[in-house]
Amino acid sequence: MTTVGILGGGQLARMMALAGAPLGLRFLVLDATPDACAGQFAPMLEADYRDQAGLAEFAGRVDVATFDFENVPAESARWLAERVPVFPNPRALAVAQDRLAEKTLFRELGIPVPEFATIDSREQLDAALASVGTPCILKTRRLGYDGKGQFRIKSPADADAAWQALGPQAASVGLILEGFVAFQRELSVVAVRGRDGELQAWPLTENWHDHGILSASLAPAQTDAALQAQALDAARRVAEALDYVGVFALELFLKDGVLVANEMAPRVHNSGHWTIEGAETSQFQNHLRAVLGLPLGSTRALGHSVMLNWIGAMPAAAPVLAEACGHWHDYGKSPREGRKVGHATLRADSASELAGALERVGKALGRESQVAPVIARLRD
Ligand code: ATP
Ligand code: MG
Ligand code: MG
């Protein structure tokens, strides 16, 4: 029996383990947190990613390794890759960990990106504010997620506050200044590349964020075939340049018909959770198939899906369960402000049916503002 090792034991590892069960797979999850939520479904090895003894034991017990967490130190990934197949490969992981490296790669590949400049000092920030222009966003190059490690700069007068907030981190994680993209929509493409180079992508997904955290996704996004082709082309270039194996996501801004790349996630992605019920093959199962060199499943969407993230605490399940098209995912995590603790997916054959269900659920849960932009799009 094949054992897949997963570095990181969050909800992504948990959903991977659930998707791998029908394939007859076993899992081993490496995580330093004793109550990591994947541990409820997969055996866990309690160790830090940097701990060589832990990594050595992990390597000895798995046939192949992958990630639930993109910030595993690249050195740990490289060390592991010398002992066991690791997908995606450590170089792909390293590029995706660093906003400067990933934006530089996108630009080299002809993929549109916002203006950007690397920032090592206060003087450089002033110079970059002039070249990049305002509004813009100062971000940490590494270790940011859910909008953390970012400071929005409206005018050069905000430079002092931005430097006060993030300057102390310049030496440890690096900083990048990015032009603010006044986008019409936020989209993402989730794609999978097999060990043989076959590439497939799920339909484009439209995403809404709340305070930098994904709040809702609609798939397929209501866009035309030309945009889908643009996204697929960008995904293919990135995947081939990195010799990528597995699932990844490109987060995109739609501005005046052009897809501008924001960042990539070298793993299964929150904007792909709808694929569990809303696609022929889920991102989790296809990731495992890719990593194991198995044939990839179809990424075709089954009707229309909306995914709602539950942030901080789980709401009542009943209104979603009462819908014929409702699917519930409770990650079994304890509540904490800003923490992703679960999600729901509503899947229907028609956009109007989906909008109706979404409206009922939003009202019953007092989440009208979370569902409103999605309903508006479905009724466009
Ligand atoms: P994630 O949880 O997706 O990894 P993150 O912390 O890496 O988030 P980003 O994706 O860079 O952060 O930014 C979070 C959100 O902030 C984006 O989804 C987008 O809504 C907004 N944002 C980020 N960069 C820009 C930009 N250059 N122009 C406009 N909006 C932006
Ligand atoms: Mg990110
Ligand atoms: Mg992001």
From TrEMBL:
Pathway linked to the protein? Purine metabolism; IMP biosynthesis via de novo pathway; 5-amino-1-(5-phospho-D-ribosyl)imidazole-4-carboxylate from 5-amino-1-(5-phospho-D-ribosyl)imidazole (N5-CAIR route): step 1/2
Tell me which residues make up the ATP-grasp domain.
103-292
Q: Which PROSITE patterns match?
A: ATP_GRASP
Please provide an example of a Pfam family that matches this protein in its UniProt record: RS_preATP-grasp-like
UniProt binding sites for ATP = 99, 139, 144-150, 178-181, 186, 209, 262-263
Recorded superkingdom: Bacteria
Q: Which UniProt keywords apply?
A: ATP-binding, Ligase, Nucleotide-binding, Purine biosynthesis
Any one GO biological process: 'de novo' IMP biosynthetic process
Enzyme Commission number, as recorded:
6.3.4.18
**What is this enzyme's catalytic activity, as reactions?**
5-amino-1-(5-phospho-beta-D-ribosyl)imidazole + hydrogencarbonate + ATP = 5-carboxyamino-1-(5-phospho-D-ribosyl)imidazole + ADP + phosphate + 2 H(+)
The molecular function terms of the Gene Ontology recorded here are: 5-(carboxyamino)imidazole ribonucleotide synthase activity; ATP binding; metal ion binding; phosphoribosylaminoimidazole carboxylase activity
Q: Which InterPro entries would you find in this protein's record?
A: ATP-grasp, ATP-grasp_carboxylate-amine, ATP_grasp_subdomain_1, PreATP-grasp_dom_sf, PurK, PurK_C, PurT/PurK_preATP-grasp, Rudment_hybrid_motif
GO CC, any one term = cytosol
Role this protein plays: Catalyzes the ATP-dependent conversion of 5-aminoimidazole ribonucleotide (AIR) and HCO(3)- to N5-carboxyaminoimidazole ribonucleotide (N5-CAIR). Catalyzes the ATP-dependent conversion of 5-aminoimidazole ribonucleotide (AIR) and HCO(3)(-) to N5-carboxyaminoimidazole ribonucleotide (N5-CAIR).
Assembly information from the UniProt record: Homodimer.
| NCBIfam families noted in UniProt | PRK06019.1-2 (NF004676), PRK06019.1-5 (NF004679), purK (TIGR01161)
State the family it belongs to: Belongs to the PurK/PurT family.
The protein's name is: N5-carboxyaminoimidazole ribonucleotide synthase
List the gene name: purK
